[in-house]
Design brief:
It catalyses: L-cysteinyl-[protein] + hexadecanoyl-CoA = S-hexadecanoyl-L-cysteinyl-[protein] + CoA. One of its GO terms (cellular component) is membrane. Its main location: membrane. With 314 residues, this protein is mainly α. Among the domains are: 110 residues, no CATH class; 70 residues. The strands form five sheets. It has a two-stranded antiparallel sheet with strand order 1-2. Helices cover 31% and strands 8% of the residues. Strand 9 and strand 10 form a beta hairpin. The chain has six helices and ten strands; from the N terminus they run H-H-E-E-E-E-E-E-H-H-H-E-E-H-E-E. It is elongated and about 80 Å long.
């Protein structure tokens, strides 16, 4: 089991390569998001932003990165001196880059990100159940307080205070827990809700959403028996995430029927109408291979064009 603070040391700025801890046994590649000594020295000496970006593009050409800044620049952290993976952000309070950063939580005095997001959700759920248990067990004595059946004067105020604290905490935690459950269903972080990640085809808040079922498994894992236990079961390595191919909300996604295959521009092979990119991530391992459909005739009415525009995310 991972400790609460341990996972966030993986992206601390250093001169050596970042050691990404992999939770999936089939993930064998380790990506180096730090610049080499030569590129780093050249980057620091260069004062022109366009040439600095050229250095970063050359260093990031083999990295699994599909998001950029709003100005289409490579996301680079000058503080940690590394190229930021997708969904990674620098925390000013912890002074390190955090994988899939959601927010910095002052109540636990730590950042919430890829490696402890499941633990944070379970923490909220456990706290919610505890407040509910306390309020339910004190309720009978709270009723006796108003009916003046309690004789102990000191116990009256203790019960009154305990009930109100448990009830108020339950309402507050319930709102926070519901909000993060909604984020899990959309596969978004709190940061991505307020600032959509920039892909090659523009900003998209739902760029990492794969549908409710897959989004849930990405955080809690494949085996449901471990979902409610404080055991790290999240899928992926925190640096590479499967993305959507089209800018559409999963609930609003309407795909053409199979007898209307979409064809990629400049290619003769029919393109599959599924809005998911191919990935080595285990999240998509259960899906079967896309089967190429044979050529079929299409009857297109005059003045009407039916097509599906798709763009690949590298």
């Amino acid at each position: 089991m991972r400790s609460w603070r341990q996972p966030f040391a993986t992206l601390a700025g250093s001169k050596k390569a970042i050691g990404i801890r992999h939770d999936a046994s089939d993930l064998s590649e380790v990506f180096d998001f730090c610049l080499s000594e030569a590129d780093k020295e050249q980057y620091e000496k260069e004062e022109r932003p366009e040439f600095q970006q050229e250095i970063l593009r050359r260093a990031a050409k083999d990295l699994p990165i599909c998001t950029t800044t709003a100005s289409r620049a490579i996301r680079y952290c000058d503080r940690c001196q590394l190229i930021k993976p997708d969904r990674c952000h620098h925390c000013s309070a912890c002074d390190i880059c955090v994988l899939k950063m959601d927010h910095h939580c002052p109540w636990v005095n730590n950042c919430v990100g890829f490696s402890n997001y499941k633990f944070f959700l379970l923490f909220l759920m456990y706290s919610l159940l505890y407040c509910l248990f306390v309020a339910a067990t004190v309720l009978q004595y709270f009723i006796k307080f108003w009916t003046k059946e309690l004789t102990d004067a000191y116990a009256k105020y203790h019960i009154l205070c305990l009930f109100f604290v448990a009830a108020i905490a339950f309402i507050g935690i319930q709102w926070l827990f519901s909000y993060h459950c909604w984020l899990v269903g959309k596969n978004r972080s709190t940061i991505e809700t307020f600032r959509a990640p920039m892909f090659r085809n523009g900003p998209d808040k739902n760029g990492f959403s794969l549908g409710y079922g897959k989004n849930l498994r990405e955080v809690f894992g494949d085996e449901k028996k471990y979902w409610l236990l404080p055991i790290f079961t999240s899928l992926g390595d925190g640096c590479n995430f499967p993305t959507r191919l089209v800018i559409m909300d999963p609930e609003q996604l309407t795909v053409s029927s199979q007898n209307e295959p979409a064809k990629s521009s400049g290619a003769s092979q029919p393109f599959p109408p599924r809005p998911l990119s191919e990935s080595q991530n285990r999240l998509l391992a259960s899906d079967g291979q896309w089967v190429e459909s044979g050529p079929e005739e299409e009857n297109v009415k005059s003045g009407t064009k039916k097509h599906l525009i798709v763009s690949l995310e590298s």
